[in-house]
Automatic annotation (TrEMBL), chain B:
Top-rank taxon: Bacteria
Name this polypeptide is given: Cell division transport system ATP-binding protein
One GO molecular-function entry: ATP binding
Species per Swiss-Prot/TrEMBL record: Cereibacter johrii
Gene3D superfamilies named among the record's database cross-references: P-loop containing nucleotide triphosphate hydrolases (3.40.50.300)
Domain ABC transporter: residue ranges: 2-223
UniProt key word Zinc: no
Lineage: Bacteria, Pseudomonadati, Pseudomonadota, Alphaproteobacteria, Rhodobacterales
Length: 300, 223
């Protein structure tokens, strides 16, 4: 089955061939409606999947590449331990770079919590060292042990404790979205198969006459297939349009809002929903074709 | 053209036809007679592959029917014109479109002149645009005959084609069949109308197959 074959089968305007099957009011409407509803749902599943994917990437990727070492030591040992930790990091495989945050940076970090007029200089604030990973990353366990030996006041905070469950949840959510889309597709195929079977059964006499005068199965099947494919395409286009409007009407994305307010499309992601109508059409095409050939064998 | 070798057929109960061996040679004209329910329609269905023999072999155009796939059956049907006993049509399409259906499904154009000649011959010119459900039994039969012969088939199978026709129309139809036969079409007509057979015998070398006691025999000259 090539794409060209598919296109020619649905696009060739063989009006004669289409007319041999009587127009069927309600199955036509139901097929379009089903495809539309499913496309509408698929738009949300897609949006969910993409948003969850972005979160998973953000949490997993950005945080995974950095870690912080916190040094709490008596004033007079601070410089010494900081230098020891930096030397140690410089010699640790998997660590691209490391640097101590300046006082100004630390103040900036604390300001939201304590206000700007806090006399930070007088407080024993831990020194923070930010490190960037590279390649496969460093061996956290080994690094912790060496830190304990060389700088007892240093604690490695690799964000794992809180990052991992979030990143896992986000990827699960993405997976859930993808599975939903696949299930929606499968249901569409199932429902269109049922509708096609009903339509074929209702037209048993037509099929009998066509076979009697020498029509090949492909000729008869085509009339049904083209019909269902076009209906699914039209229905899914309407459903997708409605879904996109609904997504656009959601409160606008906000970086801090996470899944709820980030549920939308960004950049090239806006193009993905436009794949839904053609995918629905291909699904309808394959489902109806299979149903038609099976039913034709059964009927005559 | 068609050969039956030791064929038997049953719909699931006892055998309806048994030990049928016969040949329809190209260009021949046969009638098939027998009491109602004796299996005339069944025999015709065996002749165009709608039914497959339960015993023995049926060979159509030198192909054993059991060996044909669905596309080959379709291609074989294009060489056979069939007039069903319960003439079925596409009820949503006008009569003229129904009559040209055998051409349409094979992607052929219908010659308008041929079509109107044919419709005139079977007396349906006025009804070309009518929908099949609005026709009388006799009109349906004539339309079915027109549909069966529009492709100039090699073989014409007609199941009680004059069942609903008055005598005048029956003779007219017979004339059409005789003419087709003269032009080379092999013809098999199931009928219990002995007058029709007698009338035919005056015009053409028609032979009569008779079904009795599940066997099919070639009847003598006396009918
Ligand atoms: N599809 C079928 N299933 C079961 N029995 C059938 C079927 N078609 C016909 N019969 C039976 O087979 C017998 C012969 O039918 P048919 O060939 O139509 O006879 P005829 O055309 O000579 O009147 C009849 O008794 C009929 O009831
Ligand atoms: Mg009969």
């Amino acid at each position: 089955m090539t794409l060209r074959e598919l296109l020619s089968e649905i696009a060739t305007p063989d009006r004669q061939a289409d007319r041999v099957v009587p127009p069927s009011g309600h199955t036509a409407w139901l097929t379009g409606f089903t495809a539309g509803t499913m496309a509408f749902l698929a738009v949300f599943a897609l949006a969910l999947s993409l948003a969850a994917g972005r979160l998973a990437d953000r949490w997993g990727e950005a945080l995974e590449r950095t870690a912080t070492i916190r040094i709490s030591a008596p004033e007079e040992q601070m410089e010494l331990q900081t230098q020891a930790v930096l030397d140690l990091l410089a010699a640790t495989p998997g660590v691209a770079s490391a640097r101590a945050l300046t006082d100004a940076e630390e103040h900036a970090l604390l300001e939201p919590w304590f206000g700007s007029d806090l006399p930070l200089d007088t407080l024993p604030i831990p020194r923070l060292i930010e490190l960037q990973e590279e390649g496969q990353g460093y061996d956290a366990q080994g690094l912790r042990q060496r830190l304990a030996a060389e700088a007892p006041g240093a604690i490695l905070d690799d964000h794992l404790r809180w990052r991992q469950p979030l990143a896992t949840a986000a990827s699960r959510l993405r997976l859930l979205g993808t599975v939903s889309i696949l299930l929606i597709l499968a249901s569409t195929a199932a429902m269109i198969t049922l509708a096609a079977n009903a339509s074929l059964a209702a037209n048993a006499q037509v099929i009998g006459v066509l076979r009697l005068v020498g029509a090949r199965d492909i000729y008869i099947a085509r009339a049904f297939v083209r019909r269902f494919t076009l209906r699914a395409l039209a229905g899914a286009a309407a459903g997708t349009a409605a879904g996109l409007v609904a997504v656009m009407l959601l409160p606008s994305a906000d970086a801090a809002g996470g899944v709820l307010t980030g549920l939308g499309f960004q950049g090239a992601g806006w193009l993905l929903p436009f794949l839904l109508p053609p995918v629905a059409a291909v699904t309808a095409f394959l489902a109806t074709r299979a149903a038609a050939f099976r039913k034709l064998k059964e009927l005559t | 053209m068609i050969a039956f070798d030791n064929v038997a057929y049953s719909y699931g109960g006892g055998e309806l036809l048994s030990e049928v061996s016969l040949r329809l040679t190209p260009g021949s004209f046969h009638f098939l007679t027998g009491p109602s329910g004796s299996g005339k329609s069944t025999f015709l269905k065996l002749c165009y592959g709608e039914l497959l023999p339960t015993v023995g072999t049926v060979t159509i155009f030198d192909r054993e029917v059991h060996s044909l796939d669905r596309d080959e059956v379709a291609r074989m049907r294009r060489r056979i014109g069939v007039v069903h006993q319960d003439c079925r049509f596409l009820d949503h399409l006008p009569l003229a479109t129904n009559v040209t259906l055998p051409l349409t499904v094979t992607g052929r154009e219908s010659n308008m002149q041929d079509l109107s000649d044919l419709m005139a011959w079977v007396g349906l010119s006025q009804l070309a645009d009518a929908l099949p459900p609005s026709l009388s039994g006799g009109e349906r039969q004539r339309a079915a005959v027109a549909r069966a012969i529009i492709t100039s088939p090699d073989l014409l199978l007609a199941d009680e084609p004059t069942g609903n026709l008055d005598w005048e129309m029956s003779l007219r139809l017979l004339k059409l069949l005789v003419e087709l036969n003269r032009m080379g079409t092999t013809i098999l007509v199931a009928t219990h109308d002995l007058n029709l057979i007698r009338s035919a015998k005056q015009q053409v070398a028609a032979r009569v197959l008779r079904i009795s006691h599940r066997r099919i025999q070639l009847a003598g000259a006396d009918l």
